Amino acid sequence: MQKMITVNINNQEYEVQEDCNIVEACDAHNIPLQRFCYHRYLPVDGSCRTCMVEIETPQGMMVTTACTTKVKPGMAIYTNSEKAVAAQKSALEFLLLDHPLDCPICDKAGECLLQDNYFDFGRYDFRRTVARYFKGGKALNAGEHIVLDQERCILCRRCIRFFDEIVRTPELGIISRGHESSISLFPEKFIRNPYSGNSADICPVGALTLKEFRFKQRVWFLKKTKSICTQCARGCSIYIEHNKNTVWRFMPRENPALNRVWMCDRGRFSFNKLHEKRIFTPLKHQEEISFNQLYDDIAELLKTRRSGEIAWVVGPFSSNETYYALKTYCGDNAVCLMPPASGERDDLLMLAEEYPNAQGATFFGLQTETAPLIDKIQKGRIAALIIVEMDLFNLRNDSFAQCLMENIHKIPLKIYLTAYRDETVARVDYVVPVRTYAETNGTFINATSLLQKACQALVPEHPDIDAACIALYTIATGARKHQRRYSDASEMYDKLRSHYDELRSFQFNQIPEYGIALNMPKRADEPFKGIHVDFNVCSTAKPLEES
Amino acid sequence: MAVQFSEAALKEYEEIVTRYPDKKATLLPALWLAQREFGYVSDEVLEYIAQLVGMPAVKVYEVAEFYTMFHKKKPGKYHLQLCQTISCYLRGAEDLRSYIQETLQVLPGETSADGLFSFQLVECLGSCHTAPVIKINDEYYDSLTVEKLDAIIRHLKKNSSGEDHGV
User: Fold this and answer.
1) Given CB atoms, is B43 within the 8 Å cutoff of chain A?
2) b/e for B85-121, b at 16 or more Cβ within 10 A?
């Protein structure tokens, strides 16, 4: 616990953390103060000069930048004194002086600090009498994902600090001087680091924008749904930002213990996959059938089988609810395959395991040993194989997949629960379309044993498409639609939580925003290992998006 | 890497390194050395210096772009630096400026078509008592008038045509 001290802000006493700076002290108590260069997860820079406050010093009253000044016990701070307000206003006026004001065509409009601060703290009369100076440098290609508009830049250096201090690939710099200064790359170089998308998030104006988001949607139309990234075992907290049932971007969601406010490009730009190669109608031998017929057929076919003859195969891609359904309703022949970890990894966030929920499979005690099942398949003792959300026939170098290829003819019935039209679809008898993780509620456990929820953002194209856990429950129990015990995956969670002490006290909608830290062995190191960044995070401060 | 210091320049750089506690501090002297060695600091040279000093290339680029005395483009054989600060201004620097612009057909920041002269306006050269002043390469030409400057330029032109300049 940090030591608390008392300071006096605008003639009122406040308890703040020792060692925080004045911006953080103001944030902790909802005292409005404008800023551009200050960012909670970056080193303090003091370059924008907009967070001016007046403080009492032994030498008398002094106007200074709040972000570079640490609080001291008993310090008297004024954010609204005449001098402080005048200094704030003139600093902001300077930033706006040469800004192109192309908000109508700027993607940042609506979430732009320059707009927000102008409305909150700005002066409303334009005083410039000489011609506006335009830097030029519009829509420059700055990398695979990034477009740079030099003339919109206010030189806060957030992007520079992010690349220098967090990713540690210095790629951007400020060239020239005075009013000609602009953000630039080295000539004929491009931003190449795997975290480049974050620079557009932290850009307070529209100087850095994402190619994938440019001119796609106005930000005020976007609805934000709390979710997680499923591209690797890190499971970063994200917002799925969507409108009209389409995902337009993924944005990192603040989680101090996990991804802070960052995410990698691999995860960020995976949002397109949610709409690609989707499958919406059930298939029987590659021909479309109705959902009623599908579930009737499967119930009929499985009814005659003993449970020992039915095998269930799942991957580390499914939600906890699916694992729970598998464990509870599907008998002993359930196996979870772990594909080899082959992705890119680093010390920041990215992990080699390109799947979100291997820890969940462990938590629910799913069998990962495939040898007994391989044996049964080879001996022809498996009559039905149900594959859950894993492109099994696309798995290379996996002994189980190998065995399956060779002995496929020995299994008379193969059923595949999937959201995507992948290689396995063509190899099975029945395809049961299920929802993607964005179309249902669910929980996932990341590599550092943090259980997080992913809420439903989209409505599936076909109303009868179920979440995988519910489809699994339906198949395993043979329940008809009106007999089903669950109508939503969150109900499955609410059922399973009663079995686990660590989860019992959290209903689905009460799962904390930052997740539940489970007491189980971790699969990977903590994020940002060995990377020391000199920033102050006040635990009492509000989350970023609300401030 | 295509560009590289000559052995003598490298030796000089090694000596510069010994003067500072941190190698990064040698950035400015290294850039000076490079400008002397190569005539100007191209992108290629900047990358070489970055490697030499052990800094990211873009940080070297920042510094080279900040200081106007580093040439990013190849300057003319004679680089004219006309002082535009107050003493020279009062003593007729503006006349010299129009003379240069007209006779050599160069604007500040440009190089003449024959590659002989480049022209730059600079701040005080510290020779106010002999204003107006032009620095041509490393030489000061002071107490100038248009006539004197005309003679100097004629002389330089003649000089260069005497040599095999290739232009």
Assistant:
1) yes
2) bebbeebebeebbebbeeebebebebbbeeebbbbbb
Nearest of A135, A175, A172 to residue B63 by alpha carbon: A175
Binding-face residues of A in 158-177 toward B, CB within 8 A: 170-177
Task: Give the integer Cα–Cα distance in Å for A130 and A138.
Answer: 22
Backbone angles phi, psi at A305, to 5 degrees: -90, 140
Contacts of A172 in chain B (CB under 8 A): 58
Distance between alpha carbon A474 and the CA centroid of its chain, in Å?
Answer: 31
CB-CB contact of A369 with A362 (8 Å): no
Q: Where are the domains of chain B?
A: 7-66, 78-162
Whether B57 has its CB under 8 Å from any CB of chain A: the answer is: yes
Q: Do domains B7-66 and B78-162 have the same CATH topology?
A: no
| Strands (E) located in A374-435 | 384-388, 413-418, 430-433
Minimum distance, in Å, between the CA of residue B64 and any CA atom of chain A: 8
B110: its two tokens: 């440009």
The CATH number of B7-66 is 1.10.10
Is the preceding peptide bond at B132 cis, omega within 30 degrees of 0?
A: yes
Contact state of B43 with A171 under an 8 Å Cβ cutoff: no
Cα distances from A166 to residues A36, A184, A534, A536, B123, in angstroms, run: 19, 19, 10, 14, 39
d(Cα A403, Cα A332) in Å, to the nearest integer? 20
> Does residue A187 sit at the B interface (CB-CB below 8 Å)?
yes
Q: What is the dihedral of CA A495, A499, A505, A511, to 10 degrees?
A: -60
Residues forming a β-bridge with A5: A16
CB A444, CB A357: distance < 8 Å: yes
Please list the residues that pair with A443 across neighbouring strands: A453
CA distance A177 to chain B (A): 6
Per the CB < 8 A criterion, the answer to whether B35 and B72 are in contact is no
> CB neighbours of B147 closer than 8 A, spacing ≥ 6?
none
pLDDT digit string, tens, across residues A377-410: 999 899 999 999 999 888 877 888 888 888 888 8
Q: What is the pLDDT of residue B61?
A: 96
Which long-range contacts (C-beta less than 8 Å, at least 24 apart) are formed by B91-98?
Answer: B91/B131, B91/B132, B92/B132, B92/B144, B92/B145, B92/B146, B93/B131, B93/B132, B95/B146, B96/B132, B96/B134, B96/B144, B96/B146, B96/B149, B97/B121
Cβ proximity of A274 and A247 under 8 Å: yes
| pLDDT tens digits, one per residue of B31-61 | 999 999 999 999 999 999 999 999 999 999 9
- Identify whether the C-beta of residue A361 lies closer than 8 Å to the C-beta of residue A314: yes
Chain B interface includes A185 (CB < 8 A):
yes
Q: Which of A43, A66, A82 is nearest to A162 (CA)?
A: A43
pLDDT, tens only, B90-119:
999 999 999 999 999 999 999 998 899 999
Place of tokens 């967090």: A166
Distance from the B141 Cα atom to the nearest Cα atom in chain A, whole angstroms:
29
Question: Is residue A127 packed enough to be buried (19+ CB in 10 Å), middle (13-18) or exposed (0-12)?
Answer: exposed
pLDDT band at A339 (very low <50, low <70, confident <90, very high): confident
Name the one residue in this structure whose structure tokens are 């997080």. A452
* 3-state DSSP percent of chain B in helix, strand and coil, to 5: 50, 10, 40
H/E element holding A450? strand A450-454
Structural fold of domain B78-162: Glutaredoxin (3.40.30)
**Residue written as tokens 């269930």?**
A312
- Nearest chain B residue to A188 by CA: give it: B43
Hey, what domains does chain A have and what are their CATH numbers? 4-97 (3.10.20.740), 131-274 (3.30.70.20), 278-517 (3.40.50.740)
Q: Which helix (H) or strand (E) holds A334?
A: strand A334-336
| Strand arrangement of the beta sheet that strand A208-210 belongs to | A140-141, A146-148, A208-210
**Closest C-alpha among A413, A393, A412 to residue A403:** A393
